[in-house]
Every structure is written in C-alpha cells, then in structure tokens.
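[Discussion] Sanity-checking designs against the backbone

I'm trying to build intuition for which residues belong where. Below is a structure token string of 227 positions. I'd appreciate it if someone posts a full sequence so I can compare it with mine line by line.
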C-alpha cells in the first residue's frame, strides 16, 4: 500500500497541503466563531500531515530536508508543524503536530538514514516549542498522556547516541538543556531535568523518558504554585 501511495503523495503534496494552507492564512479572525473555524481548518491540516508522516514518512520528510530550494513547500511544512506545537491549550493540534514530528524524526534518525540531513531541520526550535507546551498542557485531559509519549519519542530520536554522529549528538543535548531552561523558569531543583537527560543518555525505555518528562513538569508546577 505504501509503495503505491508514496509516489502519489510526493506528486500531489503541494496541492494537498499548500492550497488549504493558503485558505487557512486568508481566513479572517474578526469573531470567536471565525477564529474557531480557522482553528478547525488548521487542525484538519495537521491531521493530514500526521497521517502522511505515520503512513508514508518519506513523502513528507524528503521535501522538508530540502529547505532553501526554490519551492515554498519545505519552509511551509516545517513552519506549520512548528505552529502546531505552539499552544498548550489546544491539545488536539499539539498531539497531531507532535505525532507527525515523532514519525518524521524517527525515520530521519533510523539506522541507514542520512542522519546528517537532520541538521536541515530546526531541531532547537522543535525542542523549545515542544517542551514549552508539554509542561503547560492540561494533564487532567487524557490526550496529554498521548502527547507525552510522542514528546518522549521525539527526545529519544533527537538524542540517540548510537544513531547520531558525535557532533550532532552533542548539539542536540545542548539544545535540550537550553530548551529545558527556557521551558521551566523558576524551577528550584535540577533533579528532574538531570534525570531526563540521564535517561536519554542511557537510552532508557520510552516509558522511563515519558515519566522523567512528566516529573519535570510536575516539579516546575509545584515550584511555581501552578495547580
């Protein structure tokens, strides 16, 4: 199925994505109803990208790794998926965007892949927006646990010592530390971030990375008096 679908998506992705995106950009925000309609269109677009990323990752990743070429597709894809990570209050959009990034980065860092191509992606921005939103989302919503799983998978893909060249791994770990500092202002103890970084360096199971990430959020909320 994927072999049949991939050429079609690669051929028509600019139509499937760029045309609805143009409509999204032009929608007014003059009332709460119009804002909600614009948000629903944006969420549907994120769902489309998530489905492509999970079912036919190559078709989505290849144009994203060609940023700087004459086509606007690469920068628009990256920018829109980053936008999806921006608002911790919109869990559906956050989950779709995180799921898409998770699938794409898993492919990009997989054995046999050209992992140097990861440098073409805004890894620091991905980490900053992902962590900022993850620690601020509503953990009472069951969808937040799904976001945590995808976020943990993203962190593992971006910091896998065995898969990444040493220089890229060091850059990723430094970007992670900076993103944690930015996401957790007022955190009084370094124990949570340290445990998260150690779990990643030790290539701990996904569950352990997820637990460590949630502990960072819990510690920060406690220190800041956030319920």
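Best answer:
Here's mine. Compare freely.
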């Amino acid at each position: 199925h994927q072999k049949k679908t991939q050429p079609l998506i690669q051929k028509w992705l600019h139509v499937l994505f760029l045309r609805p995106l143009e409509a999204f950009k032009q929608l007014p925000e003059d009332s709460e109803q119009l804002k909600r309609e614009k948000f629903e269109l944006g969420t549907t677009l994120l769902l489309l990208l998530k489905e492509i990323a999970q079912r036919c990752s190559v078709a989505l990743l290849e144009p994203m790794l060609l940023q700087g070429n004459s086509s606007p597709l690469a920068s628009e894809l990256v920018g829109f998926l980053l936008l999806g990570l921006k608002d911790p209050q919109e869990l559906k959009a956050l989950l779709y965007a995180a799921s898409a990034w998770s699938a794409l980065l898993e492919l990009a860092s997989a054995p046999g892949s050209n992992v140097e191509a990861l440098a073409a992606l805004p890894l620091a921005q991905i980490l900053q927006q992902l962590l900022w939103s993850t620690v601020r989302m509503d953990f009472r919503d069951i969808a937040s646990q799904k976001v945590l799983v995808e976020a943990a998978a993203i962190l593992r893909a971006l910091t896998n010592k065995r898969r990444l060249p040493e220089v890229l791994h060091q850059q990723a770990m430094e970007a992670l530390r900076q993103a944690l500092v930015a996401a957790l202002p007022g955190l009084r103890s370094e124990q949570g971030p340290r445990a998260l970084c150690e779990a990643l360096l030790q290539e701990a199971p996904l569950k352990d990375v997820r637990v460590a990430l949630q502990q960072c959020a819990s510690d920060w909320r406690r220190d800041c008096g956030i319920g």
